[in-house]
Specification:
Elements: H1 40-45, H2 48-57, H3 66-76, E1 83-85, H4 91-94, E2 102-104, E3 107-114, E4 120-122, H5 127-131, E5 145-149, H6 163-169, E6 173-176, E7 198-202, H7 208-211, E8 218-222, H8 225-236, H9 239-259
Parallel strand pairs: 1-2, 6-7, 7-8
Antiparallel strand pairs: 3-4, 3-5
Helix pairs in contact: 3-9
Length: about 260
């Protein structure tokens, strides 16, 4: 399970940190209250603030970091059953984690849907409009095309409910960089069997690690998330392998950027 805290080292602000969080810095978008920028009713009323923010957050502006590549290495080793992420930045995809292993619980920029005729579009079709500060419009009906980000007031994607079979099968749960404040995602931390160890790599104690009695096999690594992941990789004897993976993948991303 991963949240915004694994992406802040890549330069993406989280939502709730006082002073630096996204919700504390949305005054420039002229919205009635911070959460309105992700409320579906407000979006239908005025989509411009969301698309202004989307231009800042759009995939391609930021690069994966050590935490994302650690998850990728878990996959490469055949150990990753699934990554459930709250993030909409696409950095897990960019790190090379296949979509079959990825549950983007709060949606994705990778696909988009017309809010009127429900025609689906690849997210890439919206890139030019978003980066030019335009509201993307459907060529068929002229309705607004919305990236498949889950707004307040919308249902979670169907893939989220894979947790019903995924979590009972897990033999280890790693929770990284999340405040565990948004339901139903937050409750997933309690969905593994009591015999399953849970590793929390996080700035603070959160969610069930705070308000329920700790499990005897919980492991807490509090502080900077990337430093915690580095220590975890070191304990596993994977540090050198992970550094090589990062070097190779970072080189690929630089080559793609040059071609663009």
């Amino acid at each position: 399970m991963a949240g915004a805290g694994i992406s802040t080292p890549s330069g993406i602000p989280d939502f709730r940190s006082p002073g630096s969080g996204l919700y504390d810095n949305l005054q420039q978008y002229d919205i009635p209250y911070p959460e309105a920028i992700f409320e579906i009713n407000y979006f239908h009323h005025n989509p411009k603030p969301f698309f202004a923010l989307a231009k800042e957050l759009y995939p391609g502006n930021y690069k994966p970091n050590y935490a994302h590549y650690f998850i990728r290495l878990l996959h490469d080793k055949g150990l990753l059953h699934r990554i459930y992420t709250q993030n909409i930045d696409g950095l897990e995809r960019l790190a090379g984690i296949p979509s079959t292993k990825l549950v983007e619980a709060h949606g994705t920029f990778a696909t988009a849907t017309c809010t009127v005729c429900q025609t689906s579009y690849p997210g890439e079709d919206l890139r030019a409009d978003i980066l030019e500060s335009k509201v993307p419009k459907c060529p068929t009906c002229k309705g607004v095309i919305k990236p498949d980000i889950v707004f307040f007031g919308e249902e979670l994607p169907q893939c989220f409910f894979l947790y019903l079979t995924d979590f009972p099968l897990a033999d280890l749960l790693v929770v990284m960089g999340t405040s565990l404040e948004v339901e139903p995602f937050a409750s997933l931390a309690g969905a593994v069997r009591n015999s399953v160890p849970r590793v929390l790599i996080n700035r603070d104690l959160v969610g069930p690690f705070v308000y329920r009695a700790p499990r005897h096999n919980d492991v807490l690594e509090l502080g900077d998330v990337v430093s915690g992941v580095e220590r975890f990789a070191d304990k596993l004897g994977w540090k050198e392998e992970l550094n090589k993976l990062i070097a190779v993948e970072t080189g690929k991303l630089k080559s793609i950027k040059k071609e663009e």
